[in-house]
Structure prediction request, 78 residues.
Amino acid sequence: GRMIMRRPGEEEAGPEALNRRGHALIGRVFTLDNPIVEGSGRVRVDDSSWRVTGPNAEAGSKVRVVRVDGATLVVERA
Prediction:
């Protein structure tokens, strides 16, 4: 039943995905909580806060996640 009910493009969440939470965020757009100053800032994702790096931007700006570097999201302006 799982194979039939799975949405298109949805991957099976196995043990290999447990330590790769950030990779599921690639391509998503978020609003900056704090400005990106000198390449570093923060963004709220659901109930957690993530460190982001990218071009300087004001708080409230929309950014898109382009890749993950450890526990840091690399973003560009959306």
Observations:
- Helices lie at 2-5.
- The mean pLDDT is 84.
